[in-house]
From TrEMBL:
This is CoB--CoM heterodisulfide reductase subunit C. InterPro entries: HdrC_iron-sulfur_subunit, Helical_ferredxn. Gene3D superfamilies: Alpha-helical ferredoxin. One of its GO terms (molecular function) is iron-sulfur cluster binding. GO terms for cellular component: plasma membrane. It comes from Desulfosporosinus metallidurans.
Length: 129
């Protein structure tokens, strides 16, 4: 059993996953500015990093943001001046929330998923465009 989870908080798991220290974050908010789905979030991507650094694990794992951030989206990673892979971080946070039995926090699936499913459906039906 990895007791380090309780000693150091989830920040350690995240940093091990991305092989980068979260202290690299400049707290510049460029990630949020480049995210088309910011309005759906309760924590901005910048705040997720800030809260992880402050060991506010419960707030992060109980946020809507970690469930609504797009899978495989690199929209903010390419904007981020230090290349913080937020999509990867959110995936780790979802995994950890699930491991702790925390239910997803959203009333409806993200527009991101709606769009993905819409595109998949039309691909399946052989439609173009
Ligand atoms: S763009 Fe990058 S450096 Fe700036 S707040 Fe977001 S994660 Fe941090
Ligand atoms: S990974 Fe995509 S959805 Fe998530 S915060 Fe960045 S731009 Fe927004």
């Amino acid at each position: 059993m990895r007791l380090r989870i309780h000693e150091d908080g989830i920040r350690t798991i995240v940093e091990e996953g991305i092989q980068k220290s979260l202290t690299a974050c400049l707290q510049c908010s460029k990630c949020g500015g480049g995210c088309a789905h910011l309005d759906e979030f309760d924590l901005s991507p910048r705040q997720v990093i800030e809260y992880l650094l402050d060991c506010l694990d419960e707030q992060v794992l109980n946020s809507r943001t970690i469930w609504l951030c797009g899978k495989n989206c690199t929209g903010c990673e390419v904007i981020c001046p230090v290349g913080i892979p937020l999509s990867e971080i959110m995936a780790t946070l979802r995994k950890e929330a699930t491991r702790r039995g925390i239910e997803p926090k959203y009333e409806q699936p993200s527009l991101i998923y709606h769009k993905y499913e819409h595109c998949s459906k039309h691909r399946r039906e052989g439609e173009e465009g």
